[in-house]
Amino acid sequence: MTLSFGPDPIGDEVRHVLEVLESATGPVGGLESLHVDLKEEAGRRAGRTILPGSTENDRAARVLAGEAACVANTPGGGVLIVGVADDGTLIGTELDAQLLRRRIYDLTDRLLTVDVTPVTCRGVRLLLVRSPEAVHPVMFDHKYHHRVADSCVEVDATSWEERRRRHAGWDWSAQDSGVAVDAARSTALQRARDFLTAAGEDRNLDLAAAPVGDLLRRLNVVTPSGTLTNAGVIAFVGRGAPAIDYVRREVTGGDSVQRIRDAGRGLLEELYEVDRAIEASNPVRHLPRGLVSRQVRSLPPRAAREALVNGVAHRDWSSADPVHVEHIGSRLVVTSPGGFIGGITTSNIITHSSQPRNRALADLLARLRVAELEGIGVDRMVGDMVRLGYPAPSIEEVAGPLVRAVLVGTRLDEGWMAFLHDLEPARTADDLNALLVIRHLIDHWWIDARIAAPLIQRSGAEAADVLHQLGDVQVADVPLVTEVEGSPANEPPAWTITTAALDLLAACDERVGAPRRRQPSRSAIARAWAEHRGRISSSELAGIVGAHPTNLQRVLKDLEAEGVLAPGREVRRGAGFFYVPTGGPHHSV
Q1: Closest Cα to residue 415, out of 288, 282, 298?
Q2: How big is the CA angle at 254 (ends 250 and 258), to the nearest 5 degrees?
Q3: How far apart are CA 239 and CA 3, in angstroms?
Q4: Three-class SS of 187-220
Q5: What pairing do the DSSP bridges indicate for beta strands 331-337 and 323-328?
Q6: How many angstroms separate the CA atoms of 433 and 455, rounded?
Q7: Can you tell me the distance from the alpha carbon of 61 to that of 51, in angstroms, rounded to the nearest whole number?
Q8: How many CA atoms lie within 13 A of 398 on its CB side?
Q9: Where are the beta strands (DSSP E) in 263-387?
Q10: Contacts of range 464-472, beta carbons closer than 8 Å, 24 or more positions apart
């Protein structure tokens, strides 16, 4: 069942229904309500005969997905008791709980994650399918439904949104747990003081020194009735089961050299220990003289902590599973229960407005300075990784549903770091949009707004503005970028990194003893440009690679011979001749 520490009216109602069913000797009516629905497994009847059950039943899954969506669209959510006829007759079910959970998730367009728990009543196996209240309406079969009394009825999206606004602000982690304040563990309280002290600043130090009652109240984890919120219990008491499972390995597939998975502690205690375990296994790298940062960790500490804290702050706490943290070499993988919510996807996670699943818990961790302030944590994590020349963190939703964040800190790019140090104005290296675009230019040599927009996760107009601003940036007194010459006047501008800037990057690499940087071939640049912009001329290619157009005609003719390009017009002679992509063979270069 969904995690709850104190009053849980829906859970209490379900327990009452199960008690009635357990003691019943015949049909029982009146057990269904706004939040509880009895459901017989579809497809199990042949007349009056009950057919044997199986672990998978897609017809039943589709019926239950519709009913679960209806319950989710109801204030407070609710529970389906599967395996019981409307009159209370126990039919039972053999449906696999995890397969059903996953199937409902898929059938609701990955919007609804239910909690599926097997129970036994009078020796008959049933399933409790609990739907949390939806943040956004869940559509099924192209319609919205919600429960009125003990039935599902159709509702239009506008009416649903009006109802949602009336109930806006509901947050599970802010609810009253019913747990007394004196249940807070002394070690968890000390960890809170440790986090505040480490953050510095007078207001944090003042809070760290406050008496227990004042500390908890000022952290907003005490309800008006004087008990802890659910966030307070998670942080200072614990839920019984481990919240984090940390494993340290030196290499993939190797034996674990450290394992942290302890029950009976508050989340702050677990975070504190795991954070320090990550730090202890995150070696310092010494950089050549001349770089601003003479020493750096293999993984940026702020990025590693943010990945860890995001995993516990925004997870689905209705799942009993812990957040899994795998620390393998210089790679950190954090996998947390629950998918993305509130419209967040891999392609917008940097810029999408924050949608915390557990706002009170997220606010608590931010107040303790364990996490970044709301809305900037992912930005900082990406920026910290890219500044060291690492790939941006991979944050994606995977089957479960789970959210998996991967930080790879294997190859430190010291030449790139020195290059960033020479940018003018210096604030350019702090601008995440600029960082992502410049890194793309280093690797590919050209970019336009249509490529930059998804890269920085902003609109085309915003991406165009970022590119134009880079036109004013210099590196060691030479221009960083310039517009690509040779494109038709009616085409949107594209930008290329200047030859002088590339020469300076090569000098930075040589100064730090880095191997020669791999550069894209002229053939690869021409192919990519043609496929993206629909044409390529020797003048355009020359504008990117810094060579004379006549010296590049052979590159384009070779691509024509390979079937990659075709003439853009029959007459090859004269100015303005160009090629178009054929959509033909693709070869790695």
Answers
A1: 288
A2: 60
A3: 9
A4: HHHHHHHHHHHHHCCHHHHHHHCCCHHHHHHHCC
A5: antiparallel
A6: 9
A7: 16
A8: 12
A9: 284-286, 295-297, 323-328, 331-337
A10: 464/492, 466/433, 466/434, 466/437, 467/437, 467/493, 467/495, 469/434, 470/428, 470/434, 470/437, 470/438, 470/495, 471/495
pLDDT mean over 380-385: 93
Q: Hey, is 243 helix, strand or coil?
A: coil
Q: For the chain, what's the residue count?
A: 589
Which of 13-17, 73-77, 425-429 shows the lowest mean pLDDT across its residues?
A: 73-77
Q: Which helix (H) or strand (E) holds 416?
A: helix 414-421
402-408 and 394-398 as β-strands: parallel, antiparallel, unpaired?
A: antiparallel
Residue 317: other Cβ atoms inside 10 A: 22
Contact 344, 403 (CB under 8 A): no
In whole angstroms, give the CA distance from residue 351 to residue 374: 12
Mean pLDDT of 289-294: 57
Name the DSSP letter for residue 246: E
Give, to the nearest 10 degrees, the angle between helix 359-367 and helix 301-313. 150
Q: What is the pLDDT of residue 169?
A: 57
Phi, psi (5° rounding) for residue 433? -60, -45
Task: Give CA–CA dist 451/443, Å, rounded.
Answer: 13
Residue from 241, 263, 267 nearest 364 by CA = 267
User: How far is 383 from 212, CA to CA, in rounded Å?
Assistant: 37
Mean pLDDT of 68-90: 89
> What whole-number distance in Å separates Cα of residue 233 and Cα of residue 446?
52
User: Is residue 282 classed as helix, strand or coil in its secondary structure?
Assistant: coil
- What is the sign, positive or negative, of the torsion defined by CA atoms of 336, 341, 346, 351? negative
At 343, list the tokens: 């419209």
Among residues 187, 188, 138, 184, which one has the least CA distance to residue 164?
A: 138
Confidence (pLDDT) at 556: 93
As a whole number, mean pLDDT of residues 93-110 equals 93
Q: In which band, very low, low, confident or very high, does the pLDDT at 555 lie, cut at 50, 70 and 90?
A: very high
User: Cβ distance 155 to 145 under 8 Å?
Assistant: yes
Burial-class residue 497 by CB neighbours within 10 Å (0-12, 13-18, 19+).
buried
How far apart CA 334 and CA 330 sit, in angstroms, is 13
- C-alpha to C-alpha distance for 326 and 312, rounded to whole angstroms: 14
pLDDT at residue 234 tops 50: yes
Burial class (CB in 10 A: 0-12, 13-18, 19+), 313: buried
Number of Cβ within 10 Å of residue 569's Cβ equals 11
CB 458: neighbour CB atoms within 10 A? 19
Q: How many CA atoms lie within 13 A of 351 on its CB side?
A: 13
Q: How far apart are CA 93 and CA 91, in angstroms?
A: 7
- Phi, then psi, of 496 in degrees rounded to 5: -130, 150
Write down the pLDDT at residue 452.
95
- In 3D space, the residue among 383, 476, 382, 470 whose CA is nearest the CA of residue 428 turns out to be 470
CA triplet 155, 65, 323: central angle to 5 degrees? Answer: 115
